[in-house]
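Same chain as my last thread, 125 residues:
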Amino acid sequence: MADDFRSRLTVLYPEDPTKMCYDDIILEPWFTVSIQARRPYDDSPMVEGDPYDCDTFHVSLMTRGGVITYGEWGVWEELSKKPWAAKFREDYPFLLVAEDLTVDETQRIYDDLVRFAASRPTPTG
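reply #2:
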């Protein structure tokens, strides 16, 4: 298992709760992962600043190259076989979003992404 994903979350804009969110996690060279305690595009104040106090998370996933759902790297072709993949919807060809994930589900996704990134050569293109 990778480190607890919550240990990687850093609050952005702590002085303004309407803008407060967690910074993206970069899993070089493959993924940019956004893990938030509120739904994407939600402008309401973020109630929980400490990720260890949150029960559910919302995950947005894209490859560093920008396109996850198609392309020569085969990223989603492999990840779509994971049990958690059905929870994601395509927001754009370069962005997949899953909402209301438990801490365990979010950790499983994070672990699988870390393993995927570590087991592949650097993408070219």
